[in-house]
Amino acid sequence: MSVDEYTREFEKLLIKCDIHELEEQTIVRYLGGLESKYLNVIELQQYTTFDEVCVLAHKVEQQRKKQPVWRDFPKPSILNSPFNKGSLNQPQKNSATYPPYQQRTLATSNIPCPQKNPTK
Fold this sequence. Notes:
Number of strands: 0
Strand content: under 5%
Oligomer: single chain
Low-confidence stretches: none
Radius of gyration: 32 Å
Distance between the termini: 78 Å
Largest sheet: none
Mean pLDDT: 76
Structural class: mainly alpha
Number of helices: 4
């Protein structure tokens, strides 16, 4: 059911049942029956009246219809990736060989320490 159909039906039932309540309660009741994919976005927006909520719901629905659905995009394949150089089960051979971490050291003995300026 579209948001417009839901809104029309909701308003018909309000009139038919002759419900007189605070506008805040009407908004809560309306949002309670709205589809969650629209509700999640509407709850993040500012609104003060029932009419504003209805307009927001319509806008969110229209935006959702325009956006592509992620399932329509092809899934990336690791096997076709340019970074894959062989089977996923075989370890990759690294062209550069490094010694183990424990054997790598920095030669700091030849680096002079900065001197404080004695004139200050």
